[in-house]
User: Which sequence fits this backbone?
């Protein structure tokens, strides 16, 4: 398959994920955190449909079968028969009850709808990936530009800082910081963004060093333009292509790291849904309730592959050394 076709495929998949994330409150059939009946609703397989009986004080019962009686309602639940007076049932109708719950992708160990959690998890995981990449890119470009244009002393000091930073295993650094700060979604974005910048800083420095002595830069200095203006108006636009490709590919990496942290219990805190903590919820039930971990894992794989396809396509399309009509 031509690379531009693969890029379009990746872009189409990302568009689907973006729409799902943006429209999560409307696409999700139920609340991602609501436990209608944690006992009867535990680990229901995909496409399970059950009657939902609303009782007093906001309690719910999921039933395999309901029957309207003269006194009220009889339900079959967990292999037992239960009877409720008409006054106890809030959604009683002439035929039984007016509500049903359909678990299209099954339910988890707390009776929560997997589809609803997957849809909301898409929004959280993609948001973390995009915003953390934006933050890391801002930090990396700032440090890289300061190293490239700040003179030999600044260059040496900043690059030794980068060298020291990259010697620390990233996953252990994130786990340590997560344990210290107990992150929510916003804090996780900050932690990922503030630890993922070294590669961007090195790339920015290398690209700026390669163009800082070119004629158009000297011409800008000759007409009296300041260094900040030269950087923003003339130099950074010339390095945007590699930075854009690098940032695109790093989104997938940071989504994977978020999922890893959430899987280990250091990421998005429950009961919020992310792909990582959904996989963690299902890790102990892969044989008995495979759907709990399988669907978020598939979403994670497809999203990362789609992002990499787009990143590779952008690199080929924007790099004149590799772009040609046959690709």
Assistant:
């Amino acid at each position: 398959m031509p690379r531009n076709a693969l890029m379009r495929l990746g872009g189409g998949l990302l568009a689907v994920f973006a729409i799902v994330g943006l429209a999560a409150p409307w696409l999700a059939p139920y609340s991602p955190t609501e436990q209608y009946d944690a006992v009867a609703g535990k680990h229901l397989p995909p496409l399970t449909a059950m009657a939902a009986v609303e009782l007093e004080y906001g309690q719910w019962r999921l039933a395999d079968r309901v029957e309207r009686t003269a006194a009220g309602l009889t339900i079959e639940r967990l292999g037992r028969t239960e009877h409720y007076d008409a006054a106890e049932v809030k959604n009683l109708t002439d035929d039984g009850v007016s509500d049903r719950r359909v678990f299209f992708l099954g339910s988890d160990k707390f009776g929560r709808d997997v589809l609803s959690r997957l849809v909301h998890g898409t929004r959280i995981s993609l948001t973390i990936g995009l915003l953390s990449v934006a933050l890391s890119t801002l930090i990396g470009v700032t440090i890289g530009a300061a190293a490239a244009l700040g003179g030999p002393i600044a260059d040496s000091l900043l690059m030794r800082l980068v060298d020291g930073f990259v010697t620390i295993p990233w996953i252990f650094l994130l786990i340590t910081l997560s344990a210290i700060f107990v992150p929510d979604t916003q804090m996780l974005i900050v932690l990922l963004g503030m630890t993922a910048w070294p590669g961007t800083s090195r790339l920015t420095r290398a690209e700026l060093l390669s163009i800082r002595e070119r004629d158009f830069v000297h011409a800008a200095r000759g007409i009296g333009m300041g260094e900040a203006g030269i950087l923003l108006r003339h130099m950074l636009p010339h390095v945007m292509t590699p930075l854009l490709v690098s940032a695109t590919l790093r989104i997938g990496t940071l989504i994977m790291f978020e999922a890893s942290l959430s899987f280990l219990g250091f990421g998005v805190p429950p009961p919020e849904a992310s792909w990582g903590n959904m996989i963690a919820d299902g890790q102990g039930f892969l044989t008995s309730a495979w759907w709990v971990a399988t669907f978020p894992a598939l979403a994670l794989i497809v999203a990362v592959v789609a992002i990499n396809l787009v990143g590779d396509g952008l690199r080929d399309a924007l790099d004149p050394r590799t772009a040609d009509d046959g690709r």
Notes: The chain has a mean pLDDT of 87. The two ends are 9 Å apart (CA to CA).
